[in-house]
Amino acid sequence: MAPAAAEAAACWWNLNCWAEQNIGVALNRCKKPIQKAALYDFEWIDGFGESKFDQVLRVDKNKGVIKYLGDKLKMQNAFGAWSNMRYACDLDVTNKVVLGIELKRGYL
Prior knowledge:
The structure is a single chain. By secondary structure, the protein is of the alpha+beta class. The protein contains three helices and five strands.
């Protein structure tokens, strides 16, 4: 196996490497569905240079599905009150497709 291919294969099996390599895809694909889940207004509260996703979990190692998790979001309710939200995005990074999102009140 060529050195570049061996390095790519090693990264595939290392969750942190694979997630880091695909963080741009996650930001591009996951952000909009999370925002659309807001019934009213929303506000991202991540700082400059801070990632929207703090944690990752491997959902399916063979298919390249990663769950990106974060808590840098506030959403408004019908009465105008704001709640801190934690969110998760299941992303098929191989095909660059969002498989699902989850939102819950609170922090990670």
